[in-house]
Specification:
13 helices, alpha+beta, three-stranded mixed beta sheet, Phosphorylase Kinase, domain 1, 11% strand, 12 strands, 4 domains
Amino acid sequence: MAIAKRGPDGASQLGRWLLGSTARRFGAAFAKRRGFSAKLAQFFAFEDTPDEPELGRLFYDLPPLSFASVQLILRKELRQYPPALFAHLDPAPLGAASIAQVHAATLHGGDQVTIKVQYPSVAEAIREDTALLRRGVGYLPRHQAFFAELMDELAARLEEEVDFTHEAHQTAWFAERLDIPHVSIPTVYLEHSTPRLLVASRLEGDHLGRAQFEHPEARDRAGGLVLRTFWRSFFSLGRVHADLHPGNLLFTPSGDVGLVDFGATKAVDPPFAALIARLFRGLLGDAPVNLFELAFEGGLLGQLSSEDADRVFETAVKPFFEWLLLPLKGPLFDFGAARGLARAGRSQFLRIVRSNPEPGLYRDLLFLNRTVFLLYSTLEQMGATIPARAILHEELQRREAPAPS
């Protein structure tokens, strides 16, 4: 067996095989349960390896409900039979994820739409699972405050995700404000949507696992658009799509991008955005900055003594900052050649947590790290080569530009 061979990288080969094997087993088991369990399956997919590309389908290709069940849900939510609203409804779903599945349809007026149908009782199941995990946090020997904060953040995002009325308004909010050429956001039909049913215009493109780019330049352009979308949202809009994984992105052959599923969004605290802007200005060499003081301000050094803070900064925080700088060192960064970048960043961040008995992390830092790790993982899967430094620099400049009078 290949993984059993001895050699300098034998351990890493064994680790990759165990990771893939674990992801397949847990992914398949949890995916069938939907809801929070499927979210855990997506966590294992996030830890994907190049040898396990099929795990990425856990974001959009889970076992769907039967079409008969979908019709019953539509009848209940619409308070009328589906043919009264839809001239055509495709029985085969476009995708099925942890909370809902999506079908293509045509309204009687000719509009091409998608309908997002929430699984029965999934909201209640998610609330029960998160409550159970909250209780479990109390039994942890260390970092109870950190994990309690993490659970609060997770529960808040999941509560929003199961409210499709919230998603409808967030989708409309981003569609009105996010103006990036070749990036599309669907139009929501509020009059046909409910807390468990979302009807929206259908965008062109397909999920990453099915997308066929015309040429490598189209793939790279798409990757650049995804990265720019995140930083534009973070620095200029003050709110971000918090789930930029392959299931929520659509790609056309020419490299245009469609953003869907705005159920998980996050408002950015302005002082936190300013702190991150100062951090990247310093890392890019655009402005002098004391990284040690920024680490304290961000809560990375918690309540450590001066001596311990120096040690943790050198052994954990500084390597994390160096990781942040990796895609920004040159004019182009090849995410495809940097497999494991996202996983390495997450490991560096967890090293900071382990080095600190009770880290006083800036709450938004938890969400930012998760979102960036997920974004980088998506760019790795795309194999995109993009001008990450220039994109970040341009979005920082846009943030600091005076508002039009």
